[in-house]
Amino acid sequence: MLPTRNEAERLLEDGLQCNPGPWGSHSLITAQCAEKIALACPDMDSEKAWLLGLLHDIGRKFGTRHLGHVYDGWKYMLRLGYEEAARICLTHSFCEGTLDCYIGKFDITEAETEELKNALEQTVFDDYDRLIQLCDSLAAAEGVVTMEKRMNDIRRRYGSYPQTKWDKNMELKRYFEEKTGKDIYSIVRA
Fold first, then answer.
1. Of 61, 4, 10, 8, which Cα lies nearest the Cα of 30?
2. Whole-angstrom Cα distance, residue 73 to residue 95?
3. Considering 38, 108, 116, 153, which has the largest number of Cβ atoms within 10 A of its Cβ?
4. At what angle do helices 110-122 and 83-91 cross, to 10 degrees?
5. Own/partner pairs for 5-12, CB < 8 Å, 24+ apart?
6. How far apart are CA 13 and CA 144, in angstroms?
């Protein structure tokens, strides 16, 4: 189940009231990119893509956290009954499907870490998971950027960016370019 567009916008506004920051703009740009790419994919729902993109970082509502924002968003969306949004909160940071590729601090308890690990292991990623991972790598708070620019920014802020994650993100870009038959940047910048 997913919220309506109005409800998703209200959830983001509420989150920004609790923890203002550039993550709100980043979330909106992620949603816009996801919607545009999904429109170019005959087997995807652009409204669903927009909603998932908008809510992927909703865990930031609860404060400035690293891995905690994944856990917080996942649990928050589950409490609200939005299982599909919860799934995206869980999967958006893990293009390789494991906690091993996470960039940032492990600022959750061991029990929470184990819970995330088990949930990821049980999740078979679909095109919506992949789409939001891709769009998360295209969306900066100031607008759409190249994936290289976004990944280099993360590398600068966190001190590293694993080559395997970099390669996987580029693979996602190629995947959606094949699926749409178009250059990703031409889609999201239209």
1. 8
2. 17
3. 38
4. 110
5. 5/47, 5/50, 5/51, 8/51, 8/54, 8/55, 8/85, 9/54, 11/55, 11/58, 12/54, 12/55, 12/58
6. 21
CA distance to 20, 41, 116, 150, 187, per residue, from 179 (Å): 36, 7, 30, 23, 12
C-beta separation of 82 from 2 below 8 A:
yes
**Tokens representing 181?**
């038959």
Q: Tell how strand 139-140 and strand 143-144 pair up.
A: antiparallel
The structure tokens listed for 50 are 């927009």
pTM: 0.95
Which residues are registered as beta bridge partners of 140? Answer: 143
Write out the two tokens for 91. 């999967």
Specify the 3-state DSSP secondary structure of 188: helix
Residue 139 β-bridge partners: 144
CA angle, 14 then 17 then 21, to 5°? 115
Amino acid at the residue 71: Y
Contact 85, 52 (CB under 8 A): yes
Encode pLDDT of 1-45 as tens digits. 899 999 999 999 999 999 999 999 999 999 999 999 999 999 999
Please give the radius of gyration of the chain, using alpha carbons only, rounded to the nearest integer.
15
Helix, strand or coil, per DSSP, at residue 141: coil
